[in-house]
Amino acid sequence: MHPDLQKVAMDIIQAIPKEGFADLRAARKYFDIMLTQVDWVVYSANEHLWTASDGSVESRPVTQLEDTTGAIIPSKAQQDRAAALKHGLLSWQTAFQHILTKSLKSGGNESLIAEALSLRFICSSIALDCCFASELSYDAYIPQFQVAIPMAKTLSAATSSKPKPTFIVSSILIRSLFFIALKCRNKPL
């Protein structure tokens, strides 16, 4: 990712309103920007893509695998970026609480979107926390997976009964369920 784009995205993430989001749309816009950054870090860590893809950008250090655990040894820059994004996710969650409560009480599409964002938040937080660790690190997040599954069931039931489910709910539901199926080793879940 181009450094200028990273900086703009991080500036936006740091501008998350401390008093909370004005509405669900604002929460979603901030979350979309954050997810692009989180997904890029997770993808890069998983695919060892910390070298530049073309010759116009300076190469970054290639990530090495740790011999004993299989965990990725991130560079200082990677650690700092992941830490900043974790802080950004927590800031977003704090700013989202009021609008989440309001949306869940109101019901309807707003409730579905709020629940979908909450589900994706859980999965993104787990992915970011574990992106430099071994696959076994996901086992520590069984309680979060246990919270996510009923949310996914609620979304699935609500969207399957509607003739036209909203795009955000459907895409987040599918992506989140895929992530849970891929990373959660608890067979009952």
Q: Can you put this structure into words, describing what you see?
A:
This protein is mainly α and 189 residues long. The protein has one domain. 67% of the residues lie in helices and 2% in strands. It has 6 helices and 2 strands, in the order ααββαααα. It has helices at 3-14, 24-47, 76-106, 108-130, 142-160, 167-183, and strands spanning 64-65, 72-73. A two-stranded antiparallel ribbon has the order 1-2. A hairpin with a 6-residue loop joins strand 1 and strand 2 (72-73). The longest helix is centred in the middle third of the chain and has 31 residues, at 76-106.
Name the features:
189 residues, mainly alpha, two-stranded antiparallel ribbon, 6 helices, 2 strands, 67% helix
**Structural classification:** mainly alpha
Task: Please describe the biggest sheet, giving its number of strands, its sense, and whether it closes into a barrel.
Answer: 2 strands, antiparallel
State the helicity in percent bands: 55-70%
Give the beta-strand count.
2
Measured distance between first and last alpha carbons: 35 Å
Rg, Cα atoms, Å: 18 Å
Mean pLDDT level: 82
Tell me the fraction of residues in β-strands, as a range. under 5%
Overall number of domains: 1
Q: Shape, please? A: globular
Unreliable sequence segments: 49-65
Strand order of the largest sheet: 1-2
The secondary-structure element order is HHEEHHHH
Oligomer state of the chains in this structure: single chain
The helix count comes to: 6
